[in-house]
Amino acid sequence: MSSMTTIDVLTATRRSLHRAAEHLLAASRKRATGEITLVPARGGVATPPLPDGRVVALEGGDVVVRQAGNERRARLTSLVATAQALDLQPGFPWSKHPPGTAYEADVALPVDPTAAAALAAWFALGHEALSALAAEIPGERPTEPAIFPEHFDLGITAGSVNYGFSPGDDAIPTPYVYIGPHGELGEDPFWNAPFGAYRTWSEVATPAAAVEFLRTGRGVLGL
Questions:
Q1: Mean residue pLDDT across the chain
Q2: Quick one: average pLDDT of 5-16?
Q3: Could you tell me the pTM of the whole model?
Q4: Residue 37: which of 119, 92, 84, 112 has the closest Cα?
């Protein structure tokens, strides 16, 4: 992240992108397939291809709809305005579990280009690291890396452990990599959070460093 991008700007951008990911991208996928997860993509995040061939993506501060070689693009301004520009239906269609962000149709969603690019790069780093880790532990049946829109983090589960990359949240405002065992944590000082352990992006700057941190956590767990 550029030194010119403050934590406040990063947080505002992350919150705007999170709302769009839930209420435009994941909403489109759930209406089409019943599924909600997203994937890292060039410049941000995207749906996998939908049954009609569309891909709905966040690229920087734009929402993009691609289908059959055609592309429509609109600036993310508010959920309703951007949805109308792209013929999308806004609002996550939840039934049992509410989304992680409130649906506020006309609230302005500011996006700083530098912050958005930094978050996209973090997801790309995370995808590379999680793919490498998964290749090392096939016997634990790791899931495919996916972005879970309610938390807006990229993660996998292997055995009884979650591994992931968050763009930040209310508790830890900077992006971080984490390991979260499903069971009780021991007394080892490696565990520095209620859910397990994490390192911020200033501490983990490469995919190799991230994988090494996750391996260390596995070692503490005796895996």
A1: 95
A2: 93
A3: 0.94
A4: 92
Place of tokens 């429509």: 72
Would you state the torsion angle of the CA atoms of residues 28, 29, 35, 39, taken in this order, to the nearest 10 degrees? -120
Stretch (H or E) spanning 162: strand 161-166
Burial pattern 175-211, b for ≥16 Cβ within 10 A else e, equals: bbbbbbbeeebeeeebbeeeebbbbebeebeebeebb
CB count within 10 Å of CB 23 equals 28
- Following DSSP, what letter does each residue of 30-90 receive, concatenated? HHHHS---BEEETTEEEPPPPTTS-EEEEETTEEEEEETTEEEEEE-S-HHHHHHHHT---
